Amino acid sequence: MKLSWKNLLLWSLPIIVISFFIWQGFFVPINNENNNNVANSRMTYGRFLEYLDMGWVKKVDIYDNGHTAIIEAVGPELGNRIQKIRVELPASAPELITKLKSNHIDLDAHPTKNNTAVWSLVGNLLFPLLLIISLAFLFRKSNKTAGGPGQAMSFGKSKALFQIEAKTGIIFDDVAGIDEAKEEFEEIVTFLKKPEYFTAVGAKIPKGVLLVGPPGTGKTLLAKAIAGEANVPFFSISGSEFVEMFVGVGASRVRDLFKKAKENAPCIIFIDEIDAVGRQRGTGIGGGNDEREQTLNQLLTEMDGFEGNTGIIVIAATNRADILDAALLRPGRFDRQVSIDIPDFKGRLAILNVHAKNKKISPNVSLSIIARRTPGFSGADLANLLNESAILTARQRKNKITLNEIDKAIDRIIAGMEGTALIDSKSKRLIAYHEIGHAIVGTLLKDHENVQKVTLIPRGQARGLTWFTPSEDQSLISRSQIKAKIMGALGGRAAEEIIFGESEITTGASNDLQQVTSMARQMVTRFGMSSIGPLSLENEDPNPFLGRGMGNTNEYSDEIAIKIDKQIQEIIKDCHKKATEIIKNNRVIIDKLVDILIEKETIDGQEFRNIIKQYTKIPQKS
Asked: Which residues are in the AAA+ ATPase domain (predicted)?
């Protein structure tokens, strides 16, 4: 393990403190004069006086300011040999000296040598001296790393990761599924490497490029590829690193960042999650956060202010472009906005090919089949899918990833971990009818998506699941498609009502009813698909953050609100009626499918449709 100066300091300070107390306790000396005249035995003061009267005492040495005496005595009790004996003298014994002199005893007094004060002074000075040296070492190191008088004085310094030649290990070939965005940035990289191609016709380098897209679509990955391809100085920082609790720190960091960038121009500044600092000004209770707004104002000035910047390209990424300040989005600051959306089939296939390079996948696995089964997956989802498949393969001690592990990984990502299979009971049969209700209504409706799988294996909070294959293009949905989705969602509740009776319906349809109500309300209030007329009565996201619009944001009267509720009820009631009719007309098929589902616990979509074809005709899907 590499021992840094911070670790060294953390280890040295406790050692210094412990050493100080050891010094005080063991090495600061006390009066050790008596140690040179250690007596072999002790004697009481009264016995000492008896020895004195018998003439056995030959010599007396007095220590500790008259509190202790070492006597030399000889007598029959002592084996007629001179022995040293320690005697504790009383606090006041003025007659003792007189008696010793009258008996002509050799008397000697030894004054105390006061070395304790000197050693205590040395010990008390040593600890502060070591502490001061350690602190000086700390400040010296922090000055070198932070470029200022210690960390406490470096709040205003930029925390951007700076690399002269950014070796991220990622190039444009490693980025797939976002070809349009790659073309934009390949042009910027060319501008940085060979600007004469563009300046010859009067073109100027773009000042800023904003990457906009849902999470996981590859915005940060694309920025790493730009750093790996450009071979120019690269600054990387997160928007949240500008803002601190101290007023003015964020603006100071912005100034310091652009100052360093100008010194190394041409260069690239990448700001990840810029919405943390670039939100609209004047929002929130009390007018917003002054510190954040000061930081944003400084960023606006640095990108395109009076002084301007030359040779600096700012690349920012966000998934909340709707809340960014308008001044930040204008040309001259962010000249280009590049949208990175969820990849289509070709994009998903390209992404899977990139992430499959370091995976051992069975030759029987077709990546195109996986790409078709994963509409709506982002690049991060697809990377996670192959990683989960590899983990399941290793867990089962297999050498290669098969389609079975990939199927399980898809189910786990969409619905959660697999639970324990239900035992054969009334509850299991009820869940089977519920799921078959969803599946058969969706299959027999022309505008509904195809069934992919029906299973009784619990996943997450769901006791059973019915998967439908979503269509490739979800951007435009017709009224008939929305109503088909509502009827498919109501199929489970309708099956419970027909098979078990209204008194036996369960709470299993609670999530279905929430989705049904939401879709019906959007038909009425957003898409103009009701008798109220082609009116947009509610916005998709009226409150992206507190303060823009508080309280009731409805812009319609109470009379319109009553009509909205009635239209929602009529749509759901009509869809429920049609779903019930489908269940009643196909009761024989439903019972057969339920028996198969309880036995096998999972029915594949193609097998499901083959069984239905034996009893009725399936409409051609649009």
From this structure: 205-344
